[in-house]
Each structure stands twice: as C-alpha cells, then as structure tokens.
Amino acid sequence: MALPSEMKALLLIGDGYTKTPSAGVLEAMEPYLRPGTIAVPAPGPTQALIKVSLAPINPSDIVFIKGQYGQPRVKGRPAGFEGVGIVVATGDDPYAKSLAGKRVAFATGVSNWGSWSEYAVAEAASCIPLLDTVRDEDAAAMIVNPLTALAMFDIVKQEGEKAFIMTAGASQLCKLIIGLANEEGFRPIVTVRRDEQMPLLKELGVAHVLNENAADFEAALREVLNAEQPRIFLDAVTGPLASAIFSAMPKRSRWIVYGRLDVEPTVIREPGQLIFQHKRIEGFWLAEWMRAFRDRIGPAVLAAQKRFSDGRWSTDVTAVVPLDEAMVKLPAELAKPNGKVFIKP
Amino acid sequence: MALPSEMKALLLIGDGYTKTPSAGVLEAMEPYLRPGTIAVPAPGPTQALIKVSLAPINPSDIVFIKGQYGQPRVKGRPAGFEGVGIVVATGDDPYAKSLAGKRVAFATGVSNWGSWSEYAVAEAASCIPLLDTVRDEDAAAMIVNPLTALAMFDIVKQEGEKAFIMTAGASQLCKLIIGLANEEGFRPIVTVRRDEQMPLLKELGVAHVLNENAADFEAALREVLNAEQPRIFLDAVTGPLASAIFSAMPKRSRWIVYGRLDVEPTVIREPGQLIFQHKRIEGFWLAEWMRAFRDRIGPAVLAAQKRFSDGRWSTDVTAVVPLDEAMVKLPAELAKPNGKVFIKP
C-alpha cells in the first residue's frame, strides 16, 4: 500500500512542562492543540507505523497536553497516548516486521508520536495484535485504562480488605475496576458528583455509592467507612473531597493518588493520623508500574482482551468525533458523563 | 525502705482524646494538669515501682496531655512518659524482682502511671539498668529521644542518600541524629526558626542550616535541595514549612511526619508529584517501631548508654524544675530554645 507523504493531526502547542496548575477537565482545545498537516513519520528500526482507526481521549491525555504529565510535550508533534489501527510499515527489527498488516492496539508513550492523527508511531513492543472478537471501541482504549485497572486492583487484593473506596466512580476506569471487584467478591465504595449516576453504579454492583455534593455527604461517608473499614483509597480527584475521605478512613489506610481532577488545595486534615494511625499517602502511575512489572504486562493485556471479547468488560461510548471536527466538538463531548470519547481520523 | 502511702504528682485533667487540634507548644499548664496528692500505686506482677529522680518534658508528653497522642489519657493519673530513678518495689515476676534497688531509666507508656510524680510505675521490660557512667540528665531522657533518633536514622541509612533534611533542627532529638549522621559521613540539612540557632548547628556539623523565617528561605531551600538531593525528610513541624520542603524535594522523596508543632493546614502543594515523581508521605511513631522491632530495642538502648557515657551524645539542660514549682515555671522554661527541661520530684 502506498503511503501518503503528509497527514492531518492534532498538534501540541506547548513544549515541555507547565508551571501553571489547572484542573483535569479540558475547558477548551485552542490553548493546547492546533489542527495541522505534517509529514508522515518513518518508523525507527524497532517501531511500527499505524494507520489509526480510532483513538480515545483519556484523562491522562488532558493532563499531558496541558503539560502536567510525567513526560514532557514535544511542540508540533501529534498528541494521543493510545489507539487502534492497522500496521502499514515497520522497521527492520524481526518482531516489528512480524506485525505488518496486523490490527493492533498501541501505546505511543515512548515514541512521542501520538494517536490523534491519521498515522501514529509506536514501539513494536507497545503494539498488541488483537483477537478478532475485540471491537475497535474496546481495542482503542485497551492499554491505559485496562492495565491501570488491573494494576490498581492488584493493590487492593494485596491489602486483603474486601472493601475499598474510589473517587470519580462513574469513570470508565472505575467501571473496569468494579467489574474485577465483583468477580472476586470485593466491595467497592464509590463517590460521584451527580445523583443520576447513582442507579447505574448500583446496577454495576458497587457496595455503596455516595454523592459528594449531597448535604449529608460527610455523615454518610463516615457511616459507610465505619461499617466497611476500607484500607485502600484509589483517588482521581484530590482536593477537599479526597481530604475528607482520607481523614475518615481507619488505621493503616493508604491514599493512592492517580489523578488530579480538582485543583483546589489538597490538605492533610490530621497529620497526627500519619504518626499514630500509620496512614500513608502515595501515588500510582501506569508508566512506573509498567517499568517495575514488565513481565506482568503481557498476561494483563491478554486478560483484558478476553474480558472485552466475552463482554465482562465493555467500553461505554459517548461519542466518536471525526478528526476534522475535534477542535470544535471535543470539549462539549468530554463534559458529558459516563462514557468515553474517541477521535476517528 | 518503708514507702509512704501518698505522693505528690502532676495529674491529668482530661480523659481519652480531644477533638480540638492545638499546637505542639505548651501555652499553659492549667487546662491539662493539676498538682495533687494520690496514693502511691502498687506495682503489678511484672512491674516495678520507681522513686523518680528526674523526669523530662518531651514534645510527645505535650501532645499526650493535650489528648492528641496515639494513646488515651486516664483522668487523675500522673503524666510523664519517661524518667530515671531507683526501683523501690517490684511484682513477683523474677525479672521484675531482679531490678530491686537498681538505678534505671524507665518508660511508662504501657503502665499509664507517669513519671511527673514522686513515684512511677513501669513494666520491668521497660526499665533499663544504668551504667554508672551515665548522668541522671542523660538517663532521664534516654528512651524516647535516643531510640527515635536511632530508628529514624536507620531509615535514612536504608534509603542510601547521604543527604537528608529535618525541621526543628535545634531540638534535642535532631542534635542526637546529627551526631549519628556525622559519625557515618551523612549530610544533615536542618531548618530552624532563629538566626542565633545557626552557629550552634554549624558547630555540631550540619551540612546546611536554613532559617525558615528568612526572606529568601524558599530560594535558599531550593538551591540546597538541588545541590544535595536528599530523599528523606524527617518532619516535626508540618504546616506550610513542611509543604514547601516536600514540594522542593527530588523524585522518590519520602516525607516522614513524627511531630505536629505547627497547626496551620498541611497542604500537599503538588499532588502530581505523588503520581509522576513517586513521592510518598508517611509517619513515624516510636511505639509502633518498638512493637515492630522488639529485638532491636536492647541493642539500641545499649548503644545510647555508651554514647552518653563517652560524650558522643550529651543532653543540653535548660532547667531542672522542682515538682512543686512545675505548674508555675514549666511553660516559660519550655519556651526557651536549645535544651531540655526536667522535673525533679
């Protein structure tokens, strides 16, 4: 197949990191991205060039394009951390060549050539040949969220307590974790921001769902935490909500921050709990986990494919936005709750 | 020796815990303690009754009498976590009996019969027969601070980086840690609140001393941390000072809270550092360490006695206050910097 010399993409405006903190929501595209046409890149020896079919917008993408992720931006390069597509060219490395023509899920973190583009570059080692039974909508978001879900649920299992608590409970990531938890008899407690999200989460099988904006939230929170005694807190939000939850948790609790949706100050309400109750505060970053547990990536990805194939996991789709319309439509689509937004080049 | 039936003591006014946070300084005695006369207690089977020679006021005592320690107050009992004295009666347990007549350093945590009293009760296992070469002033404060110093410096050594940072650098505890650090070629960085404390700490051999109230404190802090790259932060203060230090520390830093001298809110300035820089926040409590590392207590105590005997360690004495004058004099003596205050029954 002859490749074009140029391609359309959403290109990064900023370079490196920012020092200006901002919330995890994408209030507008223009400060961070511009539509552009650039040369189709050539894959390096160990890389694959992928014609992108579908690419998701993950919360980590928003953090990245704003310059607040753990990896610097390269100005003028396409954004987008993962996607699904067909391998149309490869480097000379034998494993890379073995991927030619295959439909793959891919992650672009190492290559720095993103998926919000007609063509993307990924390390062959970050490309996963797909089972035919996996839909594009599931395959496009099959690395970041599913691996994060499996890795963080492992932390819950290692802790041993059946109950655990999560903020941003209606996110795709939390829904994946709720699925894992139900199968193994664990009891997820989740917080959401809207009453209308509560019935859906109860249907999914959470033990408790609390609306953080309810007038009696803190009282309800304390009652649930006293009854369930969760020791792990998986937190995508930070700020006053997370402070309140951590403060109400029992001895030996661990507050594990993996997102920063709220930019309000994050206060340790009672530092004495760190001393006398052995509570701890730490973070989770998938890239770090992948470096530390390389041998667990393959089995985790296979587990994810099986789950998406047999319907135990399923990606809720809010919208599929053509690349040409992304600048106009993305912020409004992302503001809708409960599902994932995709870009279709 | 015939024992009296009654004794003078400083008795706890509060019971259990408080919900009102307050600073680590003792602004007045009256809300927390009253002078009183109570029956001399009888030691239990595994306990010793000690005629107290000298008892220190530690920061943990202040936290305890205010009801903010990890152990509940018992109203009407004497306060005071440690001291030195002569064993004048024991229970029937053979080890307890072996202590009769001996001069011991003792800790009262488990017995709940404190040392700010003419007689105190301690578990025999918490009594340490003393070498004659150890002064009363060193022996009286030989458990809480020395064991905390040895245990926390172990954390520094395990981390491996030669540089580490401490708040409240002029405290007795920090001076003990500075002594340990110098012997093993480590580089302590400390913060203090007054310029006049700086020459003393430089003489003791710290790598850097910073005045937290200096106009250029944050700039100086960043310069020192960039140069030294400390990964361990031993913090007795919390609040804005500790927030600033943790935020400026390098990747993989650990903020270890062991005191709460400042009651201002403790903010995690950049929660993203927990995610992308693998920073962590935790606590240290000596009681917890002693439960976890029982077999290290004996050697640590012996090491402490040797250090005090040969002058490598020495307790700076601000004042020795007679028990009868403690209500009037203690707050003003405790407000003086650089040394330890003792009660003499």
Account of the protein in words:
- With 345 residues, chain A is an alpha/beta fold.
- The first copy, chain A, has 2 domains: 6-141 and 315-344, Medium-chain alcohol dehydrogenases, catalytic domain (Quinone Oxidoreductase, Chain A, domain 1, Alpha-Beta Complex); 145-287, Rossmann fold (3-Layer(aba) Sandwich), CATH 3.40.50.720.
- In chain A, 31% of the residues lie in helices and 25% in strands.
- Chain A has helices at residues 59-65, 94-97, 136-139, 144-159, 172-183, 198-204, 217-228, 239-248, 272-276, 286-292, 297-309, 326-335, and strands at residues 6-12, 33-39, 47-56, 82-90, 103-107, 119-123, 127-129, 163-166, 187-192, 208-211, 232-235, 254-257, 266-268, 280-283, 317-322, 340-344.
- In chain A, the strands form 3 sheets. In chain A, strands 3, 4, 5, 6, 7, 15 and 16 form a 7-stranded mixed sheet that branches. A 6-stranded parallel sheet of chain A has the order 10-9-8-11-12-14, with helices on both faces. A two-stranded antiparallel ribbon of chain A has the order 1-2.
- In chain A, helix 8 (239-248) links the parallel strand 11 and strand 12 (254-257).
- In chain A, helix 4 (144-159) packs across helix 5 (172-183).
- The longest helix of chain A has 16 residues, at 144-159.
- Chain A is globular, with a radius of gyration of 20 Å.
- The A-B interface holds A 21, 63, 68-70, 238, 257-260, 265-268, 270-285, 288 and B 21, 63, 68-70, 238, 257-260, 265-268, 270-285, 288.
- Chains A, B: InterPro entries: ADH-like_C, ADH-like_N, ER, GroES-like_sf, NAD(P)-bd_dom_sf.
- Chains A, B: This is NADH oxidoreductase.
- Chains A, B: Keywords: NADP, Oxidoreductase.
- Chains A, B: Residues 24-343 form the Enoyl reductase (ER) domain.
- Chains A, B: One of its GO terms (molecular function) is oxidoreductase activity, acting on NAD(P)H.
